[in-house]
Amino acid sequence: MIALLACTRAELRRLGHWPAFWIVLGVWQALNLVFAYVFNYLAYSSGESSRMSNGLPREQLLGQMLPSAVPEVFTQGMAMFGGALVLVLGALAVGSGFGWGTWKTAFTQGPPRAAVLGATMLALLLVVVALVCAVFVVDTGVAAVIAGSQGASPALPSLSRALLGIGAGIAILGMWTLLGALIGAVARGPALAVGLGLVWVLVVENLLRGVGSIFAPIRGVTDHLPGTAAGSLAGAMRTVAGSATPGVLDTLSGSQSVILLALYAAVFVIGTLWLFRRRDVA
């Protein structure tokens, strides 16, 4: 345990001094604000909400930009686009260690491999928790400014609703981050790992779901893919009608999604640890 904590502190310090780390997090925060608030506010102000923002009426569009809607809104982009970015982060954090010789150096300094690698994944999960909380706070602040400028209610979401949204965000992004770590271990390098991860998130799962919609035998598989679980949990947070954000689904219930995400996270962690214990990193 002492070795794990020491390695976690070292890993957090390494990530904090890594420019790519801040770029990925900054890009996700910027995309979240642009698609959740900037475009919606422009549509609301111009009265063109029928063309933008999934065709919501202006009153509902404004409601989606208020503080009370933050738990619902900020999880909608996590299933696909946010997930793709944190998957890149996980793949870079693990895959880069092969090319740089970081793993070989760390494994020869004394701590067991399980402690070193476990610290990396624990640090990544702590980053996810901090990221989700930071996005929630920023979104709430932006929503409060919009509510004040439009004379709308500045009421915050209930504590249970806020915790539910934060928990859903951590579950979704945490699963994608651990998948990125596993792909980084499989590919033994960042470039291939990032490419494979993005192709899976943005292309392969969507194609499989399209095939599953017309070929029933595949549907049982596509209904339980990682992206389906993530999208269904984000979909369980929705309270409005209309077209959903790409990647947001209603295939599984909220409880089913949480269980499936937890199982996937456990499989990804075990798979990554197994690969590092069985293979040489020289």
UniProtKB/TrEMBL annotation:
Keywords: Membrane, Transmembrane, Transmembrane helix
TM region(s), chain numbering: 21-44, 78-103, 115-138, 158-179, 191-208, 258-276
Organism superkingdom: Bacteria
A GO cellular-component term linked to this record: plasma membrane
Cell inner membrane listed as a keyword: no
GO MF assignments: ABC-type transporter activity
Keyword set includes Transmembrane: yes
PANTHER family assigned: INTEGRAL MEMBRANE PROTEIN-RELATED, MEMBRANE PROTEIN
Name of this protein: ABC transporter permease
